[in-house]
Design brief:
About 25% of the residues lie in helices and about 30% in strands. The chain is of the alpha/beta class. It has a single domain, classed as 3-Layer(aba) Sandwich (Hypothetical Protein Mth938, Chain: A), CATH 3.40.1230.10. The longest helix has 11 residues. The radius of gyration is 12 Å and the shape is globular. It starts with a strand and ends with a strand.
Length: about 110
């Protein structure tokens, strides 16, 4: 569960992270870097496909600055994975609800 989120910082299961993260069913991938800082490409979320979630929640930053490329939407859809895209605060709230009933992964951009 995500305990809290504020600009540049997230607490997950009592552990604090200050870099972007990917939450998988069995681990947290911290210090997550993308090909381009404010764009999300399919290759950036490769670890998610190995986890085989039912839902992927993408947090686009405190102000929604990270743009999700169309290839991400198509790639997730082609695997019948539901995608939810929101600013990171809302994405964290949504993750905490959805993960109770569905296998869920999240990619969370913590800053802008």
């Amino acid at each position: 569960m995500i305990d809290s989120y504020e600009f540049g910082r997230i607490v997950i299961d009592g552990k604090t992270y200050d870099h972007d993260v990917i939450i998988l069913s069995d681990k947290i991938k911290d210090n997550w870097w993308r090909k381009e800082g404010h764009k999300l490409y399919l290759a950036d979320i490769e670890p998610i496909f190995r986890d085989a979630p039912q839902t992927v929640i993408i947090g686009t930053g405190a102000s929604g600055m990270m743009k999700v490329e169309e290839e991400v939407r198509k790639g997730l859809s082609s695997k019948n994975i539901e995608i939810i895209i929101a600013e990171t605060k809302k994405a964290c709230e949504t993750y905490n609800k959805v993960c109770k009933t569905r296998k869920t992964a999240a990619t969370l951009h913590l800053t802008c």
